[in-house]
Automatic annotation (TrEMBL):
One of its GO terms (molecular function) is 3-deoxy-7-phosphoheptulonate synthase activity. Its EC number is 2.5.1.54. One of its GO terms (biological process) is aromatic amino acid family biosynthetic process. Transmembrane segments: none annotated. Residues 17-259 form the DAHP synthetase I/KDSA domain. This is 3-deoxy-7-phosphoheptulonate synthase. Keywords: Transferase. It comes from Actinomadura darangshiensis.
Length: 263
């Protein structure tokens, strides 16, 4: 279903009216985690000023440590919905458990499935039945084939509104959190008709890598980027060191504004 074999044209997925796919370079940005109404609105306004048309933000956070901030849950979803009402930005937010899909889908414009759940087949199937577009991150240890088969689980349930997200894979290299596999972008676009975006924030894990990796993603033809921003990253409850602040955002805005016309 997601293969290009029976679907020669590349697809455009619409999220609350915002297109992701060929001919666009969609900027999705917002806080890694929803913490407070002020922090989420502040991040959304920064993102919007930089040209972002979709708001990201996690209310359910899949953290490596059970002692780390796990997200606000439904209270976080309510904050996202309020910020959408204020800014007009449709929401992309993660769901980590099949049992929460209905709840998250009742607030979200797009469901995000994270790298740690890339082969959680029950979750993929539930997302496929949610009626909402799905952003499917590549498993940090997953091959492109496994990623596309995960997308197939969503598609099999009647949902072809899927966006693939390359977010870095585990390699021997420890200088970056993960290695952004930029070659996976054209490979996935050759094998699948689905849009492919990159996440330079979670792959590099560091603010100074976000712009260079964004440029790399654009250069290889990514259909969009998803980026963490935070009004006060020094106090962030999750992934502060990778969040962009105002100065970086001005550069990001320029980068997106000056893009040549995409075909
Ligand atoms: C995220 O985008 O909030 C996230 C946790 O990403 P990943 O699943 O890629 O680690």
């Amino acid at each position: 279903l997601v293969s290009r074999e029976n679907h020669a044209e590349r697809s455009v997925v619409r999220v609350g009216g915002v297109p992701i796919g060929p001919g666009t370079m969609t900027l999705i940005a917002g806080p890694c985690a929803v913490e407070t109404p002020e922090q989420t609105l502040g991040a959304a306004q920064m993102a919007q000023a930089a040209g972002a048309t979709l708001l990201r933000g996690g209310a359910f956070k899949p953290r490596t440590s059970p002692y780390a901030f796990q997200g606000l849950g439904e209270a976080g979803l309510r904050i996202l919905a309020d910020v959408r009402a204020e800014t007009g930005m449709p929401i992309v937010t993660e769901v980590v458990d099949a049992g929460d899909v209905e709840l998250v889908a009742s607030y979200a414009d797009m469901l995000q499935i994270g790298t740690r759940n890339a082969q959680n087949f029950a979750l993929l199937q539930a997302a496929g039945e949610s009626g909402k577009p799905v952003m499917l991150k590549r498993g940090m240890n997953g091959t492109v084939e496994e990623w596309l088969m995960a997308a197939e689980y969503v598609a099999q349930r009647g949902n072809l509104d899927i966006v693939l997200c390359e977010r870095g894979i585990r390699t021997f290299e420890t200088a970056t959190r993960n290695t952004l596999d930029i070659s996976a972008v054209p490979v996935a676009q050759r094998l699948s008709h689905l849009p492919v975006i990159v996440d330079p924030s979670h792959s590099g894990g560091s603010r100074d890598l976000v712009l260079p990796l964004t440029r790399a993603g654009i250069a290889v033809g990514a259909d969009g980027v998803i980026i963490d921003v935070h009004p006060h990253p020094e106090t962030a409850l999750c992934d502060g060191p990778q969040a962009l602040v105002d100065g970086d955002l001005r550069e990001l805005a320029k980068l997106v504004r000056d893009l040549p016309p995409l075909v």
